[in-house]
Specification:
By secondary structure, this protein is an alpha/beta fold. The protein contains 14 helices and nine strands. Helix 5 packs across helix 6. The longest helix is centred in the last third of the chain and has 24 residues, at 302-325. It starts with 10 loop residues before the first strand and ends with a helix.
Length: 329
């Protein structure tokens, strides 16, 4: 992705954990202006780490940091007093506290605290109407909308006299940390084509595959396939490495061969015009070594186990949505 193809508006990251850092780092690597990014993170040590890794990055911490990151700031007496009484900490301390309101807010906090964070930010979100992108697992857009509507009469929202910001829900995965992620995305009805383009350009900085789903329940399926998927491959590789060790190979060699085999197979699948079944058949000579292994896997119920695993992850994602999001609007 080129810098020209990328959204260049003001970004506010609410939460500065690993996934937020992955997105931030990917964007910066693609030429996104550092001056257009601000990270609100409650743990001061984490702010200091981000500062050391991305010199000049504006980070905020403290009770009022999330709100300030979204609404922007000027060097006013009010802002200075918030700094003096500890309500916000600005990093680096010499940085200007003049910055524009956020056009895009990326909610990158843990699902368990998303409700309290969004309820606290609801008035400023309703006032400024930024695009809200949530990467919090298991929280449906209807729940986020309800959090943003906190304290507002439902009739006012239904009548359109109070407007809620558009929300795009994203399920990334951990390979985003090495810029090889896959992400599923769902947009609410009020998200425009431009909103979708902005969100896609941001996630594409760390995700080689970005796929939209038109039914939000399919985000749970995305979770089962790509969100949790890296762990499935780690388990397979772990088992292959262990099998090699039990057959007499040293662990380092078994691990190296397993990892490269995984990478090579994925690259072949990515570049080939053949479907996955055809690729498997092509490397499975009848009565050969691969054929023996495949038959052993099939006899052990390999496909059924994979189906059960993906289905279990999908079901757990739906359960988390109920537990953490509560009743729908």
């Amino acid at each position: 992705m080129t810098q020209q193809q990328q959204h260049q508006g003001r970004l506010a990251f609410i939460g500065g954990g690993n996934m937020a850092e992955a997105i931030l780092g990917g964007l910066l690597a693609c030429g996104y202006p550092l001056s257009q990014c601000v990270v609100s993170e409650p743990i001061q040590a984490r702010c200091e780490f981000l500062q050391s890794k991305y010199p000049g990055l504006q980070t905020l911490s403290g009770p009022d940091a999330n709100r300030l990151a979204i609404q922007g700031s000027k060097s006013t007496t009010t802002t200075q007093s918030l700094i003096q009484d500890g309500s916000i900490q600005v990093n680096p301390t010499a940085a200007s506290i003049d910055f524009a309101p956020a056009e895009v807010v990326i909610l990158a906090v843990k699902p368990q605290v998303l409700r309290s964070v969004v309820v606290d930010l609801a008035p400023v979100l309703r006032a400024l109407q930024p695009l809200v992108i949530s990467i919090a697992a298991g929280i449906e857009t209807s729940a986020i909308a309800r959090f943003m509507a906190d304290g507002v009469d439902e009739d006012a929202i239904a009548a359109g006299s109070v407007k809620l910001p558009p929300v795009i829900r994203v399920m990334p995965n951990t390979p985003a940390l090495v810029l090889e992620g896959a992400a599923g995305m769902y947009a609410t009805a009020d998200a425009t084509a431009e909103h979708r383009e902005v969100a896609e350009s941001l996630l594409a900085a760390v995700s080689k595959q970005v796929s939209w789903v038109e039914t939000e329940s399919l985000i749970d399926t995305v979770t089962g396939i790509s969100g949790s998927g890296p762990a499935y491959f780690f388990l397979m590789m772990e088992a292959m490495e262990e099998a090699g060790v039990k057959l007499g190979m040293d662990r380092a060699t078994a691990k190296a061969l397993t990892i490269q085999t995984c990478l090579g197979a994925a690259k072949m699948a990515q570049l080939s015009s053949d479907d996955l079944e055809t690729l498997r058949i092509k490397v499975t000579s009848p009565q050969g070594t691969t054929d023996a292994a495949i038959k052993a896997f099939e006899a052990g119920g390999f496909r059924d186990l994979v189906q059960k695993g993906v289905t279990a992850a999908d079901a757990r994602s739906r359960t988390l949505a109920k537990e953490l999001g509560g009743a729908k609007l």
